[in-house]
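Response to reviewer comment R2.3. The reviewers asked that we include at least one raw input/output pair. We reproduce the pair for Exodeoxyribonuclease III here without editing.
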Amino acid sequence: MKITTWNINSVRLRIDHVTRFLKEEAPDVLCLQEIKCLNDNFPAKALSAAGYEHQAVSGQAGYHGVAIISKLPLKNVEIRGFCDKGDCRHIAASVAGGIRIHNFYVPAGGDEPDPKKNEKFAHKLDFLDEMRDWFGELGPRSKAVLVGDLNVAPTENDVWSHKQLLKVVSHTPIEVEKLNAVIASHGWVDVARELIPEPEKLYTWWSYRAKDWRASNRGRRLDHIWVSPALKKPALALGRDAYRIHDDARDWEKPSDHAPVSLKFDL
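Raw output as returned:
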């Protein structure tokens, strides 16, 4: 089974990118973040025509929004709210084999990394705390996959410059601490770093501000694929080639600033 996560930054604006990716890479499941549309405006017909008839959507007008589209039937769809904000930032569904997929879009957090001065940053920290508490309740045998734009680059080699980004939202010590607490709450396995250990650099996001994003390569690893302990063996069985950051999509016309990220499981 192949699962892909992608912050598409408007699914309607980039529906041609999505259908191109589905044709070229054919994941079994694609999890999208920042779809930026209501459920009624989600391009369901185009995705069904591409072979992805099974869809679970939690949309919001102009902001946020997440979706899971799949070749495989989706069961027990769940949408969970966080921080009493009413934002559409989570959706979950089960696929074959009882595997539960959680798709997240964690708040970006604004520009000022001070929760007293910046409400958006405070919201982000609270959101991560709620994730920690919730996943701490899961049983040890749960077959779960957590994917999405988590908006935190946790290690020194997940950013282009650790020293220069220590005070930049997405890589501050408090964010890293809280993301690591989410990981510890359920023993999540960060697949990327299991398969591709440090000090190798890994990035999934590059700013629109760079005139030549490849030349500057000032990236961050904000998009993640984690698995619960029960899925560690099948998630790692196919080796590092089973994990891929599709950075070629960042070169497409009017791309998302995030690249799709995929993992093949040996199930």
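The chain has one domain: 2-264. The CA atoms of residues 11 and 18 lie 8 Å apart. Further pairs are available on request from the corresponding author.
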